[in-house]
Every structure is written in structure tokens, then in C-alpha cells.
TrEMBL record:
<feature type="domain" description="Aminotransferase class I/classII large">
    <location>
        <begin position="34"/>
        <end position="360"/>
    </location>
</feature>
<feature type="modified residue" description="N6-(pyridoxal phosphate)lysine">
    <location>
        <position position="223"/>
    </location>
</feature>
<dbReference type="InterPro" id="IPR015421">
    <property type="entry name" value="PyrdxlP-dep_Trfase_major"/>
</dbReference>
<keyword id="KW-0663">Pyridoxal phosphate</keyword>
<dbReference type="InterPro" id="IPR004839">
    <property type="entry name" value="Aminotransferase_I/II_large"/>
</dbReference>
<keyword id="KW-0368">Histidine biosynthesis</keyword>
<protein>
    <recommendedName>
        <fullName>Histidinol-phosphate aminotransferase</fullName>
        <ecNumber>2.6.1.9</ecNumber>
    </recommendedName>
</protein>
<keyword id="KW-0032">Aminotransferase</keyword>
<dbReference type="GO" id="GO:0008483">
    <property type="term" value="F:transaminase activity"/>
</dbReference>
<dbReference type="InterPro" id="IPR015422">
    <property type="entry name" value="PyrdxlP-dep_Trfase_small"/>
</dbReference>
<dbReference type="InterPro" id="IPR050106">
    <property type="entry name" value="HistidinolP_aminotransfase"/>
</dbReference>
<comment type="pathway">
    <text>Amino-acid biosynthesis; L-histidine biosynthesis; L-histidine from 5-phospho-alpha-D-ribose 1-diphosphate: step 7/9.</text>
</comment>
<keyword id="KW-0808">Transferase</keyword>
<dbReference type="InterPro" id="IPR005861">
    <property type="entry name" value="HisP_aminotrans"/>
</dbReference>
<dbReference type="InterPro" id="IPR015424">
    <property type="entry name" value="PyrdxlP-dep_Trfase"/>
</dbReference>
<keyword id="KW-0028">Amino-acid biosynthesis</keyword>
<comment type="similarity">
    <text>Belongs to the class-II pyridoxal-phosphate-dependent aminotransferase family. Histidinol-phosphate aminotransferase subfamily.</text>
</comment>
Length: 370
């Protein structure tokens, strides 16, 4: 055995910058408001919690590998064929599985400039090449994406609305994007924040999935459903795509608690409506209050806002982040997205939102006593 020999990862693996989750720590003794991962301040449906607790009596048994109860509940809610639904350990897992199934070395995955970073990680992990299309006004640009398509493009990823910008494409633009893609390119519509969008020209993409052979929509239980800890996502896909992903996924990729809680959560429309109403009330209030402080806010349709700080020394995003963290207000730095002068703030409880606005006011005014 030679000491000089050691296992070497495939090319691409060591090029990956690991995803850095939102912070969740505050200084000792300070009340913490975690506004760094777009979780809901309302928490999960009580019915989902009860369903998850129920499963703790059977922890020795493997879960149902087909997540039948969850797929049936989702299919009933959206009028879908349960055979076209695949569940994942969060939609992140499905984004990875789609990439592993459809992309390999020498092939390209395409996403837009400020697109969700998990796409890049999945592409590199599959040995593929990330290709980035420029955005306009922090919004995906269909023409730029179509210009970046090459014969090697396998997947186009579009978060709609996008994280971390909060911007969205109207459905006719999504249709135009799809119409411009070759039929062998998979279009992945990541609709993690679909429930929050209140725009008549928005659609998550169900119709497009139903009428095409190359469109997939992914959804998550981590955001409006308040079940991020359980890791539950799903996708609806053409039969051939669902089949490919089912072949490579772990046979028991969702735990029993996730399956049970997800099925109960989907059925609790009132709880989702309450979370959406809370966001609808606070998103404009927070946006206007922060703009009134002289900071630019990207118009968002999600449950978070991107706040832009001046580049001047001492007044920037890094200083603002430190100022807020010292007060127990945890926002998200987005330098990894090429946005070093911005912070992303999740819409939180009334108390949290008011605390951030007050603290930002003090920061902008240069006061440290607040
Ligand atoms: C949060 C988020 C997801 C989902 O994550 P999971 O917790 O893995 O389901 C997917 N896409 C975007 C754009 C997100 O912001």
C-alpha cells in the first residue's frame, strides 16, 4: 500500500463551493429572530405536527418507499396523476436527481445570473458545466437565457419567483422561454414560493408540465408549509422523466414523519391561507418602510426582500449585517450570489419585522445606541 495514493473525487467535485445555509445564531442573551432562510413565522399546520408525532410509534419500520399517501394528497389538491409525482428529501434532492439523470461531463446546465445556487452545485456534482445568463434589473431575461443555449445544453433551471431576488417572470414569458428551447432540453420550473405570489400574470407551471414532454415543476414544504426540518419536496413531470428519477432516487428517500406530515399539511388549506395573508400584509409594509430609510429594495413577490446597501465604507451590507446580528436579527448575506452589497430578509413575525425596520433606521442614521 502506497501512502502517496489516495482517493480523488471526480473532476468538478472540488470546484464546488458548498452551500452555506442561513445563520441561526445570535449573541448570548439576545432574543433571536431568524430571518435568514425564508421559513414561515406561522410554523406548520397543527395537523401536520400531529401526523408526524403519530409516526414515532413505528420507528423500526421502513417508510413507504413510494410515499403513496403524500403523492395521493398532492394529486388530489392539484388535480394531477399521482404517477407523475415524485417526492424528495426537500426539492433540493429532486433538483440534484434531475441533474444526475439528464446531465454528464461535457454537457451544460443553464440558469440565470442570480438564480438559486443549488443549481450550480447540482450541475458541478454531475460533472456538467454551469452556464449563466445575465439578468436585467435582478430579473431573469428570457432572451439572454435563449441566447446562452448551445447544442450541449441539457437543463434550463428557472426559479420562479427567484431566490434571493424575489422577482418573477409572468407566465407568458415562461411559455416564450419554453417555446424557444429544443425539445430535448429539460426546463425545470422551481416554484418554491408559488403560494406567496399574488399576481394575475403568474402561474407556477402546471399547465406547461401537462402539455409538454420536457417541463418539470418542483415544489417544497419548507417554505409556506413551515416543514423545513422534515425535508419534503415534490415534482410533477412527464411520465418518462418521473420514471428516470424514480430509478436513481434512494428507495426510501422520505421518512415516515415527512410523508405523514406532508399529506396532512396539503389538506390544511386554511393554514396556508393564513401564512399567505400574513405575508401579503407585511411584504408591502416592510418594503415601503425600508425604502423610506433611503435603501433600495428589489420588488419581491415572495416571502423575503433583497435590501441594497451603499458601497461606502462603514455603511455597507457587511456592517449592517453585524449591526443587526448584535441585536438578534439574523438576515442573509448574499455575496455568494454576486450580491455583496445586499442582504436578504425573510418576512417574519410582526415583532421581528418591526425590529428590523427600527434597527435599520438606527444603522442608517449612524446610531449604535438602538
Ligand atoms: C428554499 C428553496 C428551495 C427548496 O428547498 P427544500 O427545502 O430543499 O425543498 C428550492 N428552490 C428555491 C429557489 C428555494 O428558495
Amino acid at each position: 500500500m502506497s501512502a502517496a495514493l489516495r482517493p480523488v473525487p471526480r473532476p468538478g467535485v472540488l470546484a464546488i463551493e458548498a452551500y452555506v445555509p442561513g445563520k441561526s445564531a445570535a449573541p448570548a442573551g439576545v432574543r433571536l429572530h431568524k430571518l435568514s432562510s425564508n421559513e414561515t413565522p406561522l410554523g406548520p399546520s397543527p395537523a401536520a405536527v400531529a401526523a408526524a408525532q403519530e409516526t414515532t410509534g413505528h420507528l423500526a419500520l421502513y417508510p413507504d418507499g413510494s410515499a403513496q399517501a403524500l403523492r395521493t394528497a398532492i394529486a388530489a389538491k392539484y388535480g394531477l396523476d399521482p404517477e407523475r409525482i415524485v417526492c424528495g428529501a426537500g426539492s433540493d434532492e429532486l433538483l440534484s436527481l434531475l441533474t444526475y439523470a439528464y446531465m454528464g461531463p461535457g454537457e451544460e446546465g443553464l440558469y440565470s445570473q442570480y438564480g438559486f445556487l443549488v443549481y450550480r452545485i447540482a450541475i458541478l456534482a454531475a460533472g456538467g458545466t454551469p452556464v449563466v445568463a445575465p439578468e436585467r434589473d435582478h430579473t431573469a431575461d428570457v432572451d439572454a437565457i435563449l441566447r446562452a443555449v448551445t447544442p450541449r445544453t441539457r437543463i434550463v433551471y428557472l426559479a420562479n419567483p427567484n431566490n434571493p431576488t424575489g422577482t418573477y417572470l409572468p407566465f407568458d414569458e415562461v411559455r416564450r422561454l419554453h417555446a424557444g428551447l429544443p425539445g430535448d432540453v429539460l426546463l425545470v420550473l422551481d416554484a418554491a414560493y408559488a403560494e406567496y405570489v399574488r399576481r394575475n400574470d403568474y402561474a407556477a407551471g402546471l399547465e406547461l408540465v401537462a402539455e409538454s414532454e420536457n417541463v418539470v415543476m418542483t415544489r417544497t414544504f419548507s417554505k409556506v408549509y413551515g416543514l423545513a426540518a422534515l425535508r419534503i419536496g415534490w415534482m410533477v413531470a412527464p411520465a418518462a422523466v418521473a420514471d428516470a428519477v424514480n430509478r436513481i432516487r434512494g428507495p426510501f428517500n422520505l421518512g415516515s414523519a415527512a410523508i405523514a406530515a406532508g399529506a396532512a399539511a396539503v389538506a390544511d388549506d386554511a393554514h396556508v391561507a393564513a401564512a399567505v395573508a400574513h405575508n401579503e400584509a407585511w411584504l408591502p409594509k416592510v418594503t415601503r418602510a425600508i425604502e423610506a430609510l433611503g435603501l433600495a429594495v428589489t420588488p419581491s413577490v415572495g416571502n423575503f426582500v433583497l435590501i441594497h446597501f451603499p458601497e461606502a465604507a462603514g455603511r455597507g451590507a457587511a456592517e449592517a449585517d453585524a449591526f443587526l446580528t448584535a441585536r438578534g436579527l439574523i438576515l442573509r448575506r448574499v455575496g455568494a450570489y454576486g450580491l455583496p452589497h445586499a442582504l436578504r430578509m425573510t418576512i417574519g413575525s410582526a415583532e421581528a419585522n418591526e425590529a428590523v425596520v427600527a434597527a435599520l433606521g438606527a444603522f442608517v442614521a449612524g446610531r449604535s445606541d438602538a
